[in-house]
Amino acid sequence: MPKRKKIDSKTLIKAVEAGKTQTEIMSEFGYKSSAQVKAAYMNALIEAGKVIPITGGRRSKAAKAKTIGVGKRGSIIIAKELVDSLEIGADDKFTIRKTRAGIALKRV
Length: 108
Fold this sequence. Notes:
Layout: H1 9-17, H2 22-29, H3 34-48, H4 58-61, E1 69-70, E2 76-77, H5 80-85, E3 94-99, E4 102-107
Antiparallel strand pairs: 1-2, 3-4
Helix pairs in contact: 1-3
């Protein structure tokens, strides 16, 4: 992924407010596509506080991470409060797999 261009946000906002065309802005700031101009303009507006940024989807809903351990015999030890909150029972079975982010545990 190419490096993000360093531009002065205020200058970009002023150029748009002054009525410059997209082509003029592209040549002035060195953008190669209209998508780059639009993304830079949105980032400039967010930075200036004129637009509220959208918060993330899945990660914003995630609960605080809980630490678990591994016992002497290789058993995974999960805190009782986490077991209760996830409604895990003694007869529940899980599959575990390695992912790029770590491991994934899925109830079967």
